[in-house]
Structure formats: C-alpha cells, structure tokens
C-alpha cells in the first residue's frame, strides 16, 4: 500500500487532463443510470479496498465540519461546542471549520478513528463516489483521485464502463 500511495499523486497528475475532459462531457450528458452505476462501482471497489490499510485521507487532508458535526462531536466529548472548536478547529479561507492540523487529531497509529461513531459527515461520505448526481462533484472527485486509491480505481473503471 505504501508504494501505491507514493505513486498515486503522479498517476493522478498523468490522468488529470483525461479525467477533466471525461467529467466535462459527463456533466453535459450524464447517462440515465449514472447513479446506479456509481453505486455499483463504489460497492465493488470497497469490497476490495480496506481503508484501514491506507487512511491517506485522514493523514493528508481534513474534512469540513458542519455545525451539526461540531454539536454531535462536542456532545460525545461532553464539552461545549465552542470548547471543541477552540481545541481542534480553525476557520479556513472559505469560512469553513476545518482541523487545525493534519494528520487528523483523531487518527490513531493503527489507522482507526477515535471518533468513528460520531465522525463528520464529510468523513462518512468520503470519497463521495456513491453520491447521487455524481456528475455535479467532478472538481471534488478530481482532487480525491490524488488522495484515495479507491477513488482513483473507481474513476478508471467508470471511464471504461461509460463511454463518452
């Protein structure tokens, strides 16, 4: 997995133009069964992929925290939301709450998340490859293929399956 993760950013850069062109066409003319296809590809990939052997998303990027996330996680820690924010989060350039630092504070050495049961929505949905109206998040997907080997594989399989 280490070698695969090391090579992933370069592989994503090599495919970037091709992926961008593909997603541009996909946005203009999404197939009727796109959501179904993406659910199928996502499910098949995560039958093969164990996130606990990777956790690259947690090591290299941080999620956005919604107000609901903050309230839920603060309750889990039995602290006020403002205390949770002060301790773990900062406001980024786009006025979103994000982690103060990466790797994620809540990621253990064993790649387990210490707040898994109450993790942010962005973490629960990552890499967003099974989202409805998938064609609407192409910019996010272009970023995620450089972070997540599963997302990279799903996009490669999608390009084989959906001829544009």
Note down, in words, how this protein is organized.
With 164 residues, the chain is mostly helical. It is built from eight helices and three strands, in the order H-H-H-E-H-H-E-E-H-H-H. Strands 1-3-2 form a three-stranded antiparallel β-sheet. It starts with a helix and ends with a helix. The mean pLDDT is 96.
Distance between the termini: 31 Å
Beta-strand content estimate: under 5%
Average pLDDT metric: 96
Side by side, the strands of the main sheet go 1-3-2
The succession of helices and strands, N to C, reads HHHEHHEEHHH
Overall geometric form: globular
The biggest beta sheet is recorded as: 3 strands, antiparallel
- Give Rg in angstroms: 17 Å
The parts where pLDDT drops under 50 for at least 5 residues are none
Please give the share of residues in helix: 55-70%
Instruction: Please count the beta strands (DSSP E, at least 2 residues each).
Output: 3
Query: Given the structure, what is the number of helices?
Result: 8
Organism: Flagellimonas marina
InterPro entries: Puta_zinc/iron-chelating_dom
Pfam families: CxxCxxCC (PF03692)
Protein name: YkgJ family cysteine cluster protein
Annotation keywords:
three-stranded antiparallel sheet, mainly alpha, globular, 164 residues, single chain
């Amino acid at each position: 997995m280490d070698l695969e993760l090391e090579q992933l950013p370069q592989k994503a850069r090599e495919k970037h133009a091709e992926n961008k062109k593909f997603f541009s066409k996909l946005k203009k003319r999404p197939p009727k069964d796109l959501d179904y296809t993406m659910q199928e590809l996502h499910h098949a990939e995560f039958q093969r992929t164990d996130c606990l052997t990777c956790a690259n998303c947690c090591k290299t990027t941080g999620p956005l925290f919604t107000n609901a996330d903050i309230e839920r996680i603060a309750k889990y820690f039995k602290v006020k939301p403002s205390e949770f924010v002060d301790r773990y989060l900062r406001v980024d350039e786009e006025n979103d709450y994000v982690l103060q630092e990466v790797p994620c504070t809540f990621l253990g050495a064993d790649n387990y998340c210490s707040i898994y049961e109450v993790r942010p929505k962005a973490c629960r949905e990552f890499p967003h490859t099974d989202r409805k109206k998938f064609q609407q998040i192409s910019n996010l997907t272009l970023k995620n293929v450089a972070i997540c080997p599963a997302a990279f594989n799903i996009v490669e399989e999608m390009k084989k399956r959906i001829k544009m």
